[in-house]
Queue: 3 jobs
Job 1
Amino acid sequence: MNPQNNGLNEEQQVLLQQMYNSSEAVKAFEGGNYLFFSGAIKAVLEQMVGVLPAGEQVHILDLGCGGGMGGVICCKLLEELNLIGDWTGIDIAEGMIANAALKLNNEESASIYTGNFRNPTEEMQENLFGKHNFIIAFGAGDGMKNYYAHMNDILKYAADGATILIIDYIKGSYNEVSLGDLVSQARPTNAHALGNGIAGQIARTPAELGITNTSMLSRAVRNPKASLAFIKLGGKESGFPAYTSGMNTLGIKSLLEFAIMADAEVASMSNKNLPYNPIILRFVATPKVKQKVVNQLNES
């Protein structure tokens, strides 16, 4: 959870802190997205087992890390897969960071920073910029409207060749094309929306990115309190869905334009009953991709 500084007014900043530092939100985001989308993290780490050069470590950065479940999952997966490495989390909400610190108190390979990754401190720049070969950003696009600006903030932390795993929430009503239909079916009739049949090249099912009903249910069953808290937070009475729908301002067109440029893999967990849809992207942060993002921002 890290909003763009210049995209939020003072009132929105105050509301954000209230929402994410509430005891209900802290309990819910102790697990949050990680309970349901951890299969995507595992899929990336399993790929890294076979391709990392001998002796190279896995340096995971979790942007908007919430209550610390991502750190617990990542540290456990590193151990299970016999990978040497570490996990670093950043979050702007002090309540989230306090909870994460408690959960990760005994994890020597975990470290946490309190702050906004879009407006990093000198310490964060020195210690974190360009040093991570696996970056996770689950729901970190609050308040963003330009996907290139969103990615530019993230890519500053990436080493060349890093895998970037993003889950963002796109506003549910749009005039372009249904990404849920596009990704689940990759229908030729929709291909023109991405140009020259590119739809079939980038479209993936959630399962192809490691997210299956079995993996989501397994995590939920093993973490019942966090799962129930997360589900409860999604109820209308909590006020959180209304807040989130207002903050999820990213449009599908901006996301798809970036996905094409970066040759990203894209999948959708779309639910037409929600005012916003979770979209998964996985791509490699090559020097070419980084430069194209900078060029695009300079031109806009």
Job 2
Amino acid sequence: MFQRVKHALLPLLVLFIAIPAFATENYEVDATLQQFQRAPETEPFFATAYGYAVFPSIGKGGFFVGGAHGSGQVFKDNVLQGESKMTQVSIGLQFGGQAYSQIVFFQDKRAYDRFTSGSFEFDAQSSATALTEHASARAGTQGRSAQANENVNHAGYTNGMAIFTVAKGGLMLEASIAGQKYSYTPIIPETI
């Protein structure tokens, strides 16, 4: 009798554990999206972007050798399409730790398809615009301007993507997005 009750309750227990974790993750994504939607620098991108990927919390730390990791969600036409994980390993002058939120806007289908191909990595020319005073005004391995980089277009995209970050806490003497690797898992619609 106990075995049958145990087997019947096990799926319910898993459900009660999974639902709060999923709800917390969605709440964090929603809160992060609202934060970016209120920022004057990113507000116009929501109206014109083909899609975007939002990462509520990326943790980064290092002492000459560093690493970063975060999970997020990918949207197209403001509809959730899949999940993404970001990892980064770096070597060089770096010290400290920080947490930040990040959003990547996709200018068009080509940029969206590159990101969602399953294995995407930012190159050394990519940089992010920091939206808080806690991070540098322009993060990246190379500065960029419309005059200096022909891959930047008038809409603020570089190679079809625009990246913004918001510092959540900590201090790090390095703020590069070069070498960030992204995996993508589409959400499979339920079949009836």
Job 3
Amino acid sequence: MFVERSTQLREELKLEFTKNLSDALELIAEAGRRLGFSREDMQYVHYKDLLKLRNPEKPSADDARAYLDRLIQKRKTDRAIYDRIPLPPVICSEDDFLVIRHGTSRPNFITNGRVQAELVTVDSPTELAKVIFHGRIALIQSADPGYDFLFAQEIVGLITQYGGAASHMAIRCAELGIPAAIGVG
């Protein structure tokens, strides 16, 4: 009983936290839009960058736009470089950078149920909002409490590349009786 209740409370707290976090991110996206930046551009802006715009001299919108534009362009360039560096899927020590090993994944199967339906693959989080999942199996890289909306769309199954038996989506699928394969690699 204790484990069940503590797990439920943990998931409720994670949901409340992520709702507030989601609202904050929406406000940042809206501020960026007003300055002429896309939501994708704003992913390169750090919280501390925004704090620098709060100085007592109140920078103009043009100053803020120029400051953020420089940061965004530099970080996009850096990201393009970093994306070319291969990394292991799990890093446990510095030695993992010397030789990249790709271990065997062991998926976590949730429920004993089976389902056959159309598979919907989504490669990036920005695509999620554009897809209708109703009556389909969702195939996504990873999922956290922010993806709970999938259950409102009445998915019939879920497959994730990353995640474990105690992950948020595994617990939600178990609660709702939705067959899932979590962390298939």
